[in-house]
Amino acid sequence: MSGERPINADEPAADAAAGAAAEKSEKEPGKAAAEQSKPTSPKPKPPRKPIPTALKLIGGAVVVAVAFIVAAVIGGGGGENASGPEGPAPVPAGGETRTDQEAPPAHQAATELGYPAFATANTTRIGGSDPASNAAAAALAVFPATTPNQRPAAVTLVDEGDWEAAVAAAVLMAAPVRAPLLFSAAGGPPEPTAEALDALAPEGSPATGGAAAFALGEVADPDLSGAVTRVKGRGATAAAAVAGLRDRLTDSAPAHFVVAPSGQPGFAMPAAAWAARSGDPVLFAGRDDLPKATAMALKRHPKVPVFVLGPSSAISSQVVREIAGAGGSVNRVSGEDPATNAVAFARYAKGSFGWNVNDPGHGFVVTRDDSPLDAAAAAPLSAAGTWGPLLLTDSAATLPAALRDYLLDVKPGYTSDPTRAFYNHVWLIGDQEAIGVEQQAEINELAELAKIGDEEE
């Protein structure tokens, strides 16, 4: 691990060595099996609803929020008498969450949607208090929807009670489908999802098979003009069905499979970002068992390489051997805990698989390791803008050592001209109870461009 000296960014960095070591396995062809999904008939197109007032408030809310974070980071914002009863007070620096009564109306509107509510020079926060808000925010950040060509052709609706299906559904954000994920329920979508659907207004396209929405689990049909394609099953079965749907929509085999642990969500979370970026399906295995649906999905493509995410305590070596028997060659990417595992995946490269982020000039997404739904919600951010891997923190107050060391190792630097340097940007997912302001400030410092060496022309 490097010390305090950041990586030079005046010239492109040399290719870094890949992270975690690969495990050998056997490969064996298998027989094909497919999961079925069922499209429903299109509904008559309803009149276009106006964009909600909350969305119109976003611009003003961000300005207010930036003032909050600056005041918090510099440590005081002028004291408790600095603003009168009409003006906003600074966000408490201790990571405490303001009550609805204390928050200004525009800040409330942004927080309810989970829109990026706080920003520093190198970080942007999507500060929703729940995954539905964060998913709606991420979708709107990637698809601003102010004109028709800024809207996605389809969205994916997932039951909040099925995190495995949500992580697997991130693959539908990859090209050419580009369907961001939103959360819903049998009784209808929560308000953030309904407002995001209203703004995004997907209508389907040839790339989506004509579907305006893909629905996983027991979720109500959305009020959209296009068809809804339903994917049956839960957990590993739903994940295998999504892999089959991806095959049909793209009319191609995947380049790789990722098999993630169903019993330890923290180790599985980084798979969502990679699926959205790469189009590689995510399947699931238990520590000591390989679900039938996963084995069947692997057998459909016996020559496709498989990458197991997580240590042997999450997916045993015996299950890895079973995976090798059902599919192609198998390699493991792992770390001893979720934060270390996420860093290992961010560093990893083998052929065309893996982020291989070992130098500055990248985007990153950080969320809590105990919220797999937020990993799925944030997946669109890894497939747009500053494309980058998902990293994990394990508390609101303190960065894990593995994450801090990694961000320091890829910290950007320059020798003479900062405008010719590379830059890092970090999205933070969750409110201050998930990731505190001090932790955001530390991440900002680690991502900040730094001067290297003596002054030169």
Structure in words:
The chain is α/β, with parallel strands linked by helices. The strands form four sheets. Strands 2-8-7-5-6 form a five-stranded mixed β-sheet, sandwiched between helices. Strands 3-4-16-13-14 form a five-stranded mixed β-sheet. It has a four-stranded parallel β-sheet with strand order 10-9-11-12, sandwiched between helices. The protein is globular and about 60 Å long. The N terminus is likely disordered.
Observed structural traits:
five-stranded mixed sheet; 15 helices; disordered N terminus; 31% helix; alpha/beta; 16% strand; 457 residues
In short:
The chain is α/β, with parallel strands linked by helices and 457 residues long. It is built from 15 helices and 17 strands. The strands form 4 sheets. A 5-stranded mixed beta sheet has the order 2-8-7-5-6, with helices on both faces.
- Please give the order of strands in the largest beta sheet: 2-8-7-5-6
What is the number of strand segments? Answer: 17
Shape: globular
Number of helices: 15
Reconstruct the topology from this structure:
Elements: E1 7-8, E2 37-40, H1 53-56, H2 58-74, H3 105-113, E3 116-119, E4 123-126, H4 131-142, E5 155-159, H5 163-169, E6 181-184, H6 191-200, E7 211-216, E8 227-231, H7 235-250, E9 257-261, H8 265-268, H9 270-278, E10 282-285, H10 292-299, E11 306-309, H11 317-326, E12 330-333, H12 338-347, E13 363-368, H13 372-378, E14 390-393, H14 401-409, E15 412-414, E16 425-429, H15 437-447, E17 450-451
Parallel strand pairs: 1-15, 4-16, 5-6, 5-7, 7-8, 9-10, 9-11, 11-12, 13-14, 13-16, 15-17
Antiparallel strand pairs: 2-8, 3-4
